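Changelog entry: the DUF2214 family protein record was regenerated in this release. Current contents:
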Amino acid sequence: MDGAIVDLLLAIAHHILVFAIAALLAAELALARPGLAKADLPALGRVDAVYGACAVLIILIGIGRVLFGLKGWEFYVYNPAFWLKMAAFGTVGLLSIAPTRAILRWRRASLAQVPELEVSAMRRWLKLEAGVFVLILVFAAAMARGVGM
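Regenerated structure tokens:
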């Protein structure tokens, strides 16, 4: 397959997954609301699982872009904006651990409704994730334009 086509397909997949992550994070915030009932937890768990799967796919496709993309690996490894983007992505990943663990804990517990304080704490984590996620987009735009090189 032509290198330009491979590069295009990898870029398309990468961008679709990034938009999917943003939508899934918004869905988690919408589902994790005050009054969260046990009956709502399977849907929240599915959204969180797909979020995690999309994150893994973003990493794999991102590696593909570095290795097989037209810009070449040097464009990425010598670009400070790339490393800032990676740091922001890693931070979002670390921030997502607490909500995932909470969902798993709530699904195992025998409760009719999730305590409001726990839902509130989860929402804080999700909002923090969303805030750092915005930095990924900022650094991606800077990286694509060679800022810092």
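Residues 16 and 58 are 9 Å apart (CA to CA).
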